[in-house]
Amino acid sequence: MTSMLMNSLRNCPVNCAWAVQFAARSLSTSSQMHAAAKSKKSLAKPGVKNIVLVEGVRTPFLLSGTSYADLMPHDLARAALQGLLTKTGISKDMVDYIIYGTVIQEVKTSNVAREAALGAGFSDKIPAHTVTMACISSNQAMTTGVGLIAAGQCDAIVAGGVEFMSDVPIRHSRKMRKTMLSLNKAKTFGARLSLLGSIRLAHLNPELPAVAEFSTAETMGHSADRLAAAFGVTRQEQDDFALRSHGLAKKAQDAGLLSDVISFKVPGKDIVSKDNGIRPSSKEQMAKLKPAFVKPHGTVTAANSSFLTDGASAVLIMSEEKALAMGFKPKAYLRDFVYVSQDPKDQLLLGPTYATPKALERSGLTMDDIDVFEFHEAFAGQIMANLKAMDSDWFAQTYMGRKTKVGTPPMEKFNTWGGSLSLGHPFGATGCRLVTTVAHRLQKEGGQYGLVAACAAGGLGHAMVIEAYPQ
Fold it and tell me: Whole-model pTM?
């Protein structure tokens, strides 16, 4: 399918048209973009509970191996939960349920939601569970909470996510594990000696975790490179987009717009108060980097990919009725959402393209109705490939069963405070960051509707419509 996709797209007018169109768009955004709130109808539905985002916070997102290196995942999750408690002032026993997302689990704290909640001082009577759905794990945590509120099971949910790439589980080889388990069961010295004698040097080779698909054995970076090639995304386009992400993130950070970031005192170290992966560079410096995955002719490099990140996030979501009764002023309504799934071999990272039109259709909206777009940036090539797919009638008709293309977000509305390429991407925590950023941007810019979209390993994807809460 990849070769067919590549050949068809190369013969399709979308490539040339896109190059001109993208070049014509400004890769920067105006800090003066504070349009008056639009008089659009609310997405409230009769007989359906309004569910609101009350607050969202996150620890600073840090490059793995830096200031968080000696911690554990539950330490970061606990810090996010404590930050949420401090920022909202909600009583620790007023939350009905806690849900966290994570991807690479620490075996000692497999239900990290529970361990973090207990450590943060929440009542031990509050149930907590952990979900995993690759890079949309905290998206799933949030929407699971939405479902519990909609079903009348709960009124107040804390959802979040955490990822800790500084210390990931490394296992013995399978043969070594089997031998060790057998040793534990051996009843005689002779049996133990025989088992020890069976160990070979190759058995000592460790199994390292990899950001790769189990079903295809292909690393995500390799998939991103193939996807970029299929859609004719050039190295220059990818580097330009990465430069844009870092530039906008630095601008937002300096302007104090990243207000969801809480300060965190790292035990034995200084207080950490901002993301440390935001590093504006130059085209010349980026051009010097060699391909990271498909060598020597690939286009995905370390500079146009998201980096391994440590961090945690948390949001408080409630029924509107409960939030108002407790004296909270919500930030936004959480409206319709969808999950999608595609072939993990050739369409691994196209989740936003498939999820966006479905979420909009459920809400009765069009692309033109959306004021704020926040898409997860796994790779610059992945983002650009999605934008090109969304701008292609041919792709819509051939692969999506649609008569016309989805349409592309205007760049002046797209990830204007930076994205995962620059802010960082702790796998399990990014979804909450996206949703909180949409809520804050809607408030700042006077918009009414926002859209979150993200891809994830396994060919999965997610999109959610968010509506600003009346000011």
Answer: 0.90
Q: Encode pLDDT of 186-196 as tens digits.
A: 999 999 999 89
Alpha-carbon distance 174 to 195, whole Å? Answer: 15
16 in catalytic set: no
User: Could you tell me which residues come within 8 angstroms of residue 69 by beta carbon, excluding any fewer than 6 positions away?
Assistant: 166, 167, 310
Which range has the top average pLDDT, 25-39, 175-189, 243-257?
A: 243-257
Find the catalytic residue in 12, 135, 154, 432: 135
Tens of pLDDT along 199-254? Answer: 998 888 888 777 788 888 899 999 999 999 999 999 999 999 999 999 999 999 99
Collect contacts of 398-407 with beta carbons under 8 A, ≥24 apart. 398/8, 399/347, 400/353, 400/354, 400/357, 402/357, 406/353, 406/356, 406/357, 406/367, 407/366, 407/367
Query: 135 catalytic, yes or no?
Result: yes
The catalytic position among 12, 154, 432, 455 is 455
